[in-house]
Specification:
The chain is 44% helix and 18% strand. By secondary structure, it is of the alpha/beta class. The relative contact order is 0.12. The chain binds pyridoxal-5'-phosphate. Pyridoxal-5'-phosphate (PLP) binds next to α9 and β11.
């Protein structure tokens, strides 16, 4: 029979034996309160101790750049992942030989800059994954000055008192849109959220079922609506919604009609929706706010360049929309910003709404945005890269493609031809329109697959993002910036030499 003292002693002994076994294992293998399973312990036995790992000569430079703790924690991360793979049955051995190369790869990445310049050879002008719009030279200069100096960001120079950061852009936005007032926030998603929360909270907002879109993965109208506290009232069908549908949906709780630009999505065929004028009339009749999320904010009409049908901000305001929201870095060609233009008393409500503080715009962004707006005002929109790229004449694109082909051939001897390509506006604008462009098609040597070539181009010191199909890599010239052609030629050359 086990008496209490003896039970106590045997527990103590058991505990001591387990503890002394565990103590021999490197401490980074433990997770709180967990006893290692015997087989995992067996598999992990070949790994050197952390002290040994940290003495490896190749780690020393990383330790001096990133610090010893960073190197230690990277080892611990990778070992932890290997351990988890074993526990979950993903792998059956610890792969000790893979440990150091993997840690090296990660440390090399941590030691370099993460957000880097790349070359966009895709022909997609407003490429959301590649940073959307590039700023004009004058906007870049103004950002640099404002970033490095004190400024009158929130200071009224006339009166010597506190000012408001939106004062710098309100007049410009009003001039260019024809609205009475304007405000800016972090991005268009923020502009929609702020407007719905400030104007539609606890009230009903009517939306057409044909416009309940998701944009860029995480911006979904029903979710934003939910988050804002507004109650969504859906009307019509996916393809057809009539003014009577809106009219019938109005109740005493209704405060707003919301129109959403479907952006990256089109319904073609048997479809219809009421015009802005009809919706504006209904909103006035019923004393509602008529808001439109325009997405890509077109300031300058692009129809002369074969891009017609995208509504301009001015056009929306003129049709009677009370509040229009749009992005700064899509077709507008400026920095990431969300603009709201519209009626004075509505914008005043947004200005007083506490959420604005959480969405406010940084000074560098404001500097870039002000300068970009001034380029429009002064008739110098041709200096905005996004517009410049969209307006490029076919003969200029052809010339650029020929010049790139020559450079690549001269540098590397690669087999290249000038080819017609389909470019795209991107950023959710003109989704159904592809714009004709030119590019250079490089026929890969038989030993290199499309995937390998693209990966190697992405691994260049200035990464090159292009497209590839059936053994040819295609560089679209529309989206190339000055000097990109030389880098591409060198990239092709180093890829071939590496073979
Ligand atoms: C792009 C887009 C948004 C989101 O704008 P961000 O500036 O990316 O926040 C919202 N609505 C529409 C219709 C859009 O096209």
């Amino acid at each position: 029979m086990i008496t209490p003292p003896r039970f106590f002693i045997s527990c103590l002994l058991g505990f001591y034996t387990t503890w002394s076994k565990l103590k021999k294992l490197p401490h980074y293998l433990f997770q709180e309160g967990e006893i290692m399973r015997e087989e995992i312990r067996y598999l992990l036995r070949d790994l050197p101790s952390m002290d040994e790992l940290l003495q490896k000569p190749w780690t020393l430079e990383f330790q001096s750049i990133l610090g010893r703790d960073a190197v230690r924690s990277t080892f611990a991360d990778v070992i932890g992942e290997m351990r988890k793979d074993i526990i979950q049955g993903v792998s059956s051995s610890i792969g000790a030989e893979a440990l150091e190369p993997e840690v090296f790869r990660r440390l090399a990445r941590y030691a370099g800059k993460s957000l880097r310049r790349i070359i966009n050879a895709t022909g997609v002008v407003v490429h959301t994954n590649l940073g959307r719009s590039c700023l004009s030279k004058s906007a870049i200069a103004d950002v640099a000055e404002i970033a490095g100096c004190y400024s009158n960001l929130e200071y009224d120079l006339d009166e010597g008192v506190r000012g408001h950061r939106n004062a710098h852009i309100e007049w410009l936005l009003s001039m260019l849109s024809g609205a009475d007032a304007a405000i800016t926030v972090n991005n268009n998603a923020g502009a929609v959220l702020l407007s719905l929360a400030a104007l539609g909270k606890d009230a009903e907002v009517i939306v057409s079922r044909g416009e309940l879109v998701e944009i860029g993965g995480s911006f979904r109208i029903p979710d934003i609506m939910d988050f804002s506290g507004a109650v969504m009232k859906e009307v019509g069908t996916t393809n057809r919604t009539h003014i009577e549908d809106y009219e019938r949906a109005v109740t005493p709780q209704t405060r707003m009609i919301l129109k959403i630009h479907p952006s990256n999505y089109r319904i073609v065929g048997f479809q219809s929706a009421p015009s802005r004028e009809e919706l504006a009339r209904l909103a006035r009749e019923k004393d509602l706010v008529f808001m439109e999320d325009l997405g890509s904010g077109v300031i300058a009409d692009l129809s002369a360049y074969g891009l017609s049908g995208e509504p301009t901000v001015k056009g929306c305001v003129a049709s009677g929309v009370d509040i229009v929201t749009f992005s700064g870095d899509k077709l507008l060609g400026g920095p990431q910003i969300g603009a709201v233009v519209g009626r004075k008393q509505l914008i005043a409500k947004l200005r007083e709404f506490p959420l604005l503080r959480a969405l406010r715009v940084d000074k560098m962004t404001l500097a870039a945005f002000e300068t970009t707006m001034r380029l429009y005002l002064e008739g110098r929109s041709g200096e905005i890269p996004t517009l410049m790229m969209l307006r490029m004449a076919p003969e200029d694109l052809l010339k650029a493609a020929r010049s790139l082909a020559r450079k690549i051939a001269k540098e590397s001897g690669a087999l290249v031809t000038v080819t017609k390509v389909s470019d795209a506006v991107g950023g959710g604008a003109f989704p159904a329109t592809s714009i004709p462009g030119y590019g250079v098609s490089w026929t890969l040597p038989s030993g290199i697959s499309d995937g390998t070539a693209m990966k190697r181009l992405r691994g260049e010191p200035v990464p090159i993002v292009a497209s590839a199909k059936d053994g040819n890599v295609v560089f679209h010239v529309r989206t190339l910036l000055e000097g990109d052609d030389i880098i591409i030629a060198k990239g092709v050359c180093s890829l071939l030499e590496g073979e």
